[in-house]
């Protein structure tokens, strides 16, 4: 196992069988699989899909969108959040992320973890498109010791 | 006039009256005004809205979404594009951008120009929420000498 | 304690007294304090400094650099890494990060954790400018379940 | 000619012979060629170098630094600026950018144009590593109608 792949606290997350999950979560994962087909990734050829479940039951789908200048692209998770937020949906329950890597789960990148953490802790489900094994975790586990802007400077 | 505000080629763009514009463009601008109300900008308090007109007539709305770690946020223009792309709409005609600055137009930032340029040249309409004067330009004018990834390396 | 501030695995990191640390680490922390004075942060007024210790003993300093378009800025940690990399120094031992927040440690944002994880696991020391209490952690703890690009596609 | 490659105002920039340039600018271009060799770009294999000339004569070198999560990387231009800023050098005269593309100049991406514009207008020299033809332009030409944050909100 490489250092980069190690998990400091393995017990903090679980791998579950897709069929053992709540049916609503199964639907969210299926929508993430569909969302993935819209990925615009001519540079990496690496397709990622996401589906964000809001507290009111609405699901927003996202895919990764690359750019010839790599740093300007957007990931699938942020696309899904941006859709929800821009339509006034600000309360979330869970996000599903789908990518295909033979030997590892396609977890959210650090930038997405930071972006998502702004809106509180939600469950995160990560799987391959065949929807068999699912990594079950949450934002707080994925981003411990979160950076918080000095809140006293701002009124929300 | 400050150096940062100067325009190297003033003739490359025009300021038009809102009422003189095509009625479809007027609608796009109005939707951008509405989109702006969803902005999540607790750090800057600076709300921006965008509305992207696809070739098939669909309009996607976006707003800016900030983060406590500033670099991880998303602008209104990218939000609108991400929504369209993640639903399979890849052909665009125009984008409207709405922000309120007393003395200047809230033009797209360089990152958004780069992001949008990936998908070809479209018209860009920039106005204040009161929809009076409208800066009319396009992506090619906003991003001359565009960076292009060595295309021979990629098959689209 | 807010949800955003909670740590899923408190035992994964420690708070140490500055004076109890290795003298080289003390020096790295002091250089981060000095680096912080160069922060360009007219928008947030929130100064951050970093100092990166290379395996060969060289220390590179960084500060945060903001932009009127927030997403385009750079954090202190990435500045320090960029300096080292652009001078051919690719092996690291530790990074120190200094910010002032009354009630919390100014930990690296998710984007910086992602950026740093590319170069392996190193120790991370986080403190306030007065250099009293120091949060001692590392990249793997700060970014569990790291995203790894499908390595089979690339030859390093 | 593709739409993405067109220039709205060709007269706004020039292509000069390397040997016709000021000797200091020739040196800056040569340093950018050397800086390019440090590029960390395992994903694109596309090396870029930059060298930033400060008003006091100091030259800072930068290279592009990629990340497995593409959006988190840094370009050569921003690396050079970050080095200068983090050492207190805030006044610039020119930047040189070197990349190899057979048929086009490797111009700064939109994110870098935005980042650089924060610090005023400077000359930009773009060339291939063989240092023959040099595109001579400046930030204002590369980023017309710049976005400016509502300055009344901030005191610099
Ligand atoms: Zn991501
Ligand atoms: Zn923008
Ligand atoms: Zn950061
Ligand atoms: Zn760039």
Characterize the structure shown.
4 copies of one chain form a homotetramer. By secondary structure, chain A is α+β, with helices and mostly antiparallel strands. Chain A has helices at residues 23-36, 76-86, 110-117, 139-142; strands spanning 14-17, 48-54, 59-63, 92-99, 123-127, 133-138. Chain A has a 6-stranded mixed beta sheet with strand order 1-6-5-4-2-3. In chain A, β5 (123-127) and β6 form a beta hairpin. Chain A is globular. At the A-C interface, α3 and α4 of A face α3 and α4 of C. Bound molecules: zinc ion (ZN) (4 copies). One zinc ion is lined by residues 75, 77, 108-109, 111-112 of chain D. Residues 75, 77, 108-109, 111-112 of chain A line the site of one zinc ion. Chains A, B, C, D: Keywords: Hydrolase, Metal-binding, Zinc. Chains A, B, C, D: Its EC number is 3.5.4.5. Chains A, B, C, D: This is Cytidine deaminase. Chains A, B, C, D: It is an enzyme of class 3 (hydrolase). Chains A, B, C, D: InterPro entries: CMP_dCMP_dom, Cyt/Deoxycyt_deaminase, Cyt_deam_tetra, Cytidine_deaminase-like.
